[in-house]
């Protein structure tokens, strides 16, 4: 990917990365993914359900995650998402991009301190 | 990928609804765990989630096809944009429609002739049996060959024989005898071609043997018209030539043969026959898995065996047997001319593309501000290109649809004028039908042209010099240097392509005029010909045939207005028979015969009827009959070729030596030499020809003739012979004891048919040339008037500074003619190279014909000059004050 | 409930910051600055820059006036308003909060 996505896409792409990162720890259903992201960010991030499910479906279509119905910890039917090996590669690429991007933005924001 | 996403989105939506329920339940659990009442936990979960429906809609939208929706939006934009400039839109669509129309027309002919497979089952394994020799390969067979081929069961599944053309048969027994087209076939014919049977059966091999009796198979058409499709007709008899024939079966209408047949009768060959006459065609079906090399190897052995049985003279050592794909054999030499036409018509499309691209460039340059604004509002460059391409594709698809109608109607019209012996197109082109190939072809070239003429203007319009354009006030935002150059280049290209087309058309027009000027060697004006089928037991000997000829001649001559009446076994220019001959007393040299020549058996007034001049010796008289000494008359070409020094009138010739018992006869004294006729068509040199009196034919040969070919009556009159045809047919029916005549055509028609292919080609290329000329004129007019408009201000300043109107006009003309000149130069170069492909179409004209190469560029320059004239005049009328105020 | 949702983008922040540093620029210069400053990692598309500037004008974060470039072309120059400066501070803290949060998820301690 030679050209980074424009700024509007940055955080859009970030949600995908956050989901993939969460699934790195093991398969999880949608609600659990929300809980994990919100918890690890110390409640600084709120995952909007309205973007979570579209994002999950997109990831599945791209073959980055796979899904199957199962039974959750509190005995309810739930759809579990698992990271695929393609998803694992994408996660590391996305993390790299994210670091580059934050560094780049940092360069612009940092100038005022000089 | 995205398409699958689109197709399974309903099931995915169901899945998602369940997943959201599951999520809400988990959320509710979590809230409840924190001590909320179940009611409150449920409420909180829903509040937190927001509207599930909107989530589902979000995913639903994502699962829709974004490109489909974009396409729809672009299409609406395109339609709105195009409707704003109706003049442009209509012209563009018409130009495209003409371009695509002519292509569709030519392609639909090619589709019918070259691309459609034969309608028989498994057509790839059907082959035509051929004779090979130093001159190439040709079809045709005699019984011994058929016999040998029939035995090659290791490579052929079936082998069947059938008539070249088909002999007329007379249905008798009613009030009026009716001549129908009957085809002789061998028993395997129907199974070879997979003919579907609707009633009864086909011939058994017993019925196809010498004493198999009178049996026939009816075609669907005859069955329907004569018997009302009554299945009970099988087993009854039909009267043919006064004999009862048992109807054994009926073939379905799906069975279409190249020579249309009303009914079939078995050949009933005597396989022991030594008859060497070639008078039918043989086709075969290869065994599955058999390759062509295997067939050829097998046929080499067969040829050796043939020589062993029938003598080495029966098949020269350098000749043999071969096969050709039946499809190829049917198409014959039509492929190349049709492909050349397709190439020419492709030029028309290119010119149309260049023209529309030119119009689009002009239009795009006046819309620069629109694009710049859209870019500023967030449209990417690719979006603008996409939108412009949508516009061009809309144009090209609408134009293509119109072109399809235009082209299809056009080709039917052209073919109905005169198809000129193009095989497989059916009666008046009826086999040229709309099918998926043509639809795909037209759709394909519509899309291609849309992209082709749309892409350049789109890219050039979307050049991202956004700020520059927006900052201009708009008055001068117009054609830039780049797009001006592009448009000039397009005009040059149009000119060059047009010139090639028009030079091609000029060459074909010259060819046609030369052909018209050729003297065919016989009278065609006020001459009519009609065929009388002599099938049946009455005409197995020469004397009864001669009687009908004599009586018919007398009675026809008695019809008021009739000047002369001739009879022959074949028609000039309609293909005939050939025979070998030896000159008595002359050594043969290396070849088995002294030579070969066309062979006519004629009545004594034949030369008078066709006004073929007698050059030396005498003509035939009524006394040259079976009782008189054998005589022959030859034409000048034969005299020149075989008697370059000697005098043919002193020689006797033996016709058909070794051709079998049917042709056994004594030598004939050459008694006269007549003028040459262009029997192979006006573009072929006259070939050697010998004529013998009908009344002197050996009986067996007459019997063979009666079976395979009709007798042709040729009648010349003082008035239009068509007005006399009913009296003549009545006279002939009386003379023959009730035989009908058919195929009534004037010799003018037959001659026209011989040059029809050339006329058809000439007509098409002339139409293409004119279409190109018109479009090139529009193109150069458009560019020059646009350039004058762009430079109004400059011209105004020049006027104000005292420039003469005439010098301004000349400046514009100079620029326009410079474009034309470059185009003409390139076009002439192109034509130098391309006209070689026309060589096989030409007659009496060289491919580098100086007249075509000088007159045509002048014509093109004149057309260009006249279309530059209007903008040039406009340049002189620029009012300096108005021009200056424009800023 | 002062938890932040993920904001639509950082383009406003970058434009605001750029104008805060360089005071008065036209659109092309803004894009150029962002690109150069980020060592060409960030590229600003005209298709998003101009709509963003339009919205920022309407929100009163920036004002614009026509001027002439060094190359003698007309161009629209943008300057930050007081509101814009406030918005910059707001965007900055929001951005840092989110980036910090994402970092926590991506690299858990």
Describe the structure.
- The complex is a heterotrimer of chains A (114), B (887) and C (109).
- Chain A has 114 residues and is of the alpha+beta class.
- Chain A is built from four helices and four strands, in the order αβαβαββα.
- A three-stranded antiparallel β-sheet of chain A has the order 1-4-3.
- In chain A, helix 1 (7-23) crosses helix 4.
- The longest helix of chain A is centred in the C-terminal third of the chain and has 26 residues, at 85-110.
- Chain B is of the alpha+beta class and 887 residues long.
- Chain B is 52% helix and 15% strand.
- In chain B, the strands form four sheets. In chain B, strands 4, 5, 6, 7, 8, 9 and 10 form a seven-stranded mixed β-sheet that branches. In chain B, strands 15-16-21-18-20-19 form a six-stranded mixed barrel. In chain B, strands 1, 2, 3, 11 and 12 form a five-stranded antiparallel β-sheet that branches.
- The radius of gyration of chain B is 38 Å and the shape is globular.
- Chain B starts with a helix and ends with a helix.
- Chain C is 57% helix and 17% strand.
- In chain C, a hairpin with a 5-residue loop joins strand 3 (62-68) and strand 4.
- The chains are: A alpha+beta (114), B alpha+beta (887), C alpha+beta (109).
- Chains A and C meet through helix 1, strand 2 and helix 4 of A and strand 1, helix 1 and helix 4 of C.
- Strand 2 (45-46) of chain A pairs parallel with strand 1 of chain C.
